[in-house]
Specification:
This protein is of the alpha+beta class and 143 residues long. It folds into 2 domains: 95 residues, no CATH class; 40 residues. It is 48% helix and 9% strand. The chain has a 4-stranded antiparallel beta sheet with strand order 1-4-2-3. A hairpin with an 8-residue loop joins strand 2 and strand 3. It is extended, with a radius of gyration of 20 Å.
Length: 143
């Protein structure tokens, strides 16, 4: 699979590309936007992008890539190892496409719920700050 390359901002990429984090404990995390430490997955069309994006998402969520991390200070995943794991996972997904679609739908729903909970937590945090803002004082040495 030559669809995955090391990210280079000057490199031409598919309009259906997504990015995969390559360093740190979140290695393997699929992303819509690039960062300096990532790989580029160049999909041929939206269907292929969705298929592989959700395979990467599942592998990342299940921490399936942790045994493949290398490096003592900053762990990273090798491109070849990532390719092999994605190929194997894709073969399993293609063996039972109905189950894979159910799994992806469940992941999408859970991901949406998680994002909503994060937004709610941010709103609650802001509300807490706002409630007590009227009682905030400045130390006397600032006057």
């Amino acid at each position: 699979m030559q669809k995955i390359t090391t990210y280079n901002p000057d490199q031409k990429r598919s309009p259906f590309a997504f990015f995969i984090l390559s360093k740190g404990m979140n290695s393997g995390k699929p992303m819509e936007h690039p960062c300096p430490n990532c790989f580029t997955f160049n999909a041929a069309d939206q269907t292929e992008k969705d298929h592989y994006y959700w395979i990467c998402f599942g592998l990342w969520q299940s921490k399936s890539l942790h045994p493949l991390l290398t490096g003592s200070v900053i762990p990273f995943i090798r491109l070849h190892d990532l390719n092999q794991v994605i190929i194997q996972a894709s073969e399993k997904a293609q063996a039972s496409p109905a189950n894979f679609l159910k799994t992806v739908e469940a992941l999408k729903i859970l991901d949406q719920h998680e994002k909503q909970y994060h937004r709610n937590l941010l709103l609650i945090s802001e509300a807490k700050k706002t409630i007590f803002a009227n009682y905030r004082t400045r130390p006397s040495f600032y006057r």
